[in-house]
Amino acid sequence: MTLCLYSKCIEMDTNQQTINSKAKEESILDILRSTNKQNELDTTANTLDTMKLEISDTLSESSSCEGSSTNSIPIDHSFNEDEVKETECGMNKESVYQSPLAVLLSSSESFNRSLGECANDLPDEQNLPKKSGLVYGDNHGGGINPNRTNNKNFESTFLPSRSAPKPPVEEKNKKKILLSGNKLSLNKIERGDSIHSVKTRSKKCYGLNPIDTKSDKKSRSIFNLAKRPFLKSKSVGSNMSSGSSSRSISASISTPYDAKHIHHVGVSDSGAYTGLPAEWKNLLISQGITAQEQNETENKQTLQNVVEFYKSEILNLNDKPASKERSISNLLSDDDETDVLSVISPETILSKDSVKVDNSDLVDNTKNADLIEKMSSEVPPIPKAPKISLNDNAETAKPRDISRRAVNKSAANKEFFNSLSKLCILEDPKRLYKNFTEIGHGASGAVFKADDNTETVALKKINIKSHPNKDLILLEIETMKKYTHDNVIEFKNAFFFTSELWVSMEFMDGGNLADVVMNCVLSNNQIGFICKKVLGGINFLHKNGIIHRDIKSDNILINEKGEVKISDFGFCALIREDQGKRNTMVGTPYWMAPEVVNRQNYDQKIDIWSLGIMIIEMVDGEPPYMNETPLRALYLIAKNGTPDFQTKDGLCEVGKDFMYKCLTYDPQDRPSADELLTHRFITDINSDGSIIVPLVKLTKMKKDQE
Ligand SMILES: Nc1ncnc2c1ncn2[C@@H]1O[C@H](COP(=O)(O)OP(=O)(O)OP(=O)(O)O)[C@@H](O)[C@H]1O
């Protein structure tokens, strides 16, 4: 568990050389309490006691600095950023305080890099996060229509997960306690060791320097200490057994020297931080969180949730928690896929005649059985545990048995491709269709219009290899194949050929609703008509236990007949009766329901919220907070609750009432699709599809002019 010293990181007053940790411990314990981590709570409480005693004991021996008030550290305006700052405690002066956001962002090891560097490094496009539902533009998941990236800060908010930069020069093999910003790390502290400082480049670092050595890949935040039993049982001054196994903490902390006060950080009566370094403020502001928002005591929990969410799901910095949606198919590595895909290639193991297209029954199980057998047998052999020769003088090393992981991967390969081949025709769609024209591009790949002798279809090419969640591929195909409804896009076939996966579906010649809302002003009746159709589709899905999870105008397709259909089941999820709620974060930030943003369990009601946001799109042309960075948008969704229109007179009162009902903050109070179908805004609509045909035509005309 990575724990953050949220809002009350340990304050060290280097003048008094005391750690004023009492109130801060409480904060830490509060966080643990609120997350029901009782075990870690107990352990942390013990650890904090131990640490407090040990550190303050040691520090109290020092007397070289003059005292000052706990919340007040004088500023040294002569601070030279290029200078390497250090104290004997390894505490970077400018890292003494961190705002909640900075603390949270820094709590992941992989983000433990210079914030300055982060801010300066433009994200490498290839490194942009590609995680389910939270990547934008043309990458994976919940993509935003590229035409709508009017968000100026947009790109700069994607800080790819990077490995921490090289640690600063330090004495090799030194056993140490590191106190760097909000982190206190122990590295093989043994009896008699003294605590040494680690040089941290102050320039652009601000307490987020790596404090690690390459040997330690795990987060070494203060809370990791809580997991270490040797600390739990340790009492100050106790005798420790010698030797490396005795991991004692009988280290002495030498006195600070040459201490300079860089920043005067305090906490005002209102609980707000004062005197934060400008660079910190800049970072937070660049993320769109204003200074005032950072310090709103009542919203600190919200900010914490949102930053955690942003960090783990968008920046993808955290280790993913075990998720129900992570299955063995996700254990596939790129290499594994390449192996299997090359094996499955019809050119190598299937003669062209061995697979025939049969639309009534996509699966030829006999042939697939051979195929899967072949695939499984070709899975790379399980690597044997490396042999290690041990001599008497060397430290013993126990090899880790990795064979289980390899077995899992093999099974994952087999299962995924087995399922996929059952769902697909093993044929090249490019041989069946002609006149391929690209008509769209989403997170999972390009979408083409093509035709055979009988009809025009849309063909979506799904990039299996880079897809973040193989289960979702299967689910998308299964869902489209299984469920047919007037307001759900009609699935035709899936093709799997030479490692390419294609899905063919009915072609909607009116394109997507996003283009319509950006190009046309919609009337009450047109909005009501579209709501009615989309709600009908949503209701059908919900009744079948499916949450779409990515309802937005980009995923609503229309045609010149005036039909309205939900598409893109790339993030849909099944709600089983025994399961009820889900907690995986997928979707697109601006359309996300507060319960998703707040990392709570959620159910079908999140689609209702997204429908409400879509109504705002139809009135304003864009969803709320579209000009904000995703992080701030998430924060505002969680903090502000039900958003409002920018165009005040854009919708009639009945329509507004419908919209507000969809955007009810508490999902328990938010009506279901079934209930909303009885709302007057829906029942009053008597028009047929012709009502939206002018919108399709105008949009086409405007797009042609572009
Ligand atoms: N059946 C279709 N008929 C016409 N156009 C389509 C069809 N399917 C998709 N498109 C076009 O392609 C775009 C991308 O399609 P889709 O949303 O299914 O892809 P995706 O990769 O899942 O995208 P994302 O997850 O980013 O929304 C749509 O917004 C739409 O413009």
Automatic annotation (TrEMBL):
Domain Protein kinase: 433-682
Keyword annotations of the record: ATP-binding, Magnesium, Metal-binding, Nucleotide-binding, Transferase
Recorded GO MF terms: ATP binding; metal ion binding; protein serine kinase activity; protein serine/threonine kinase activity
Positions with a binding annotation for ATP: 460
Gene3D superfamilies the record matches: CRIB domain, Phosphorylase Kinase, domain 1, Transferase(Phosphotransferase) domain 1
Domain CRIB: start-end pairs: 253-266
Cofactor: Mg(2+)
One protein family per Pfam: Pkinase
Protein's name according to its UniProt entry: Non-specific serine/threonine protein kinase
InterPro entries, sorted: CRIB_dom (IPR000095), CRIB_dom_sf (IPR036936), Kinase-like_dom_sf (IPR011009), PAK3-like (IPR051931), Prot_kinase_dom (IPR000719), Protein_kinase_ATP_BS (IPR017441), Ser/Thr_kinase_AS (IPR008271)
Organism: Hanseniaspora guilliermondii
Top-level division of the source organism's lineage: Eukaryota
Biased composition (Polar residues): 146-160
Keyword Transferase among record annotations: yes
Region (Disordered): 141-174
Reactions mediated catalytically: L-threonyl-[protein] + ATP = O-phospho-L-threonyl-[protein] + ADP + H(+); L-seryl-[protein] + ATP = O-phospho-L-seryl-[protein] + ADP + H(+)
Family classification: Belongs to the protein kinase superfamily. STE Ser/Thr protein kinase family. STE20 subfamily.
PROSITE patterns hit by this protein: CRIB (PS50108), PROTEIN_KINASE_ATP (PS00107), PROTEIN_KINASE_DOM (PS50011), PROTEIN_KINASE_ST (PS00108)
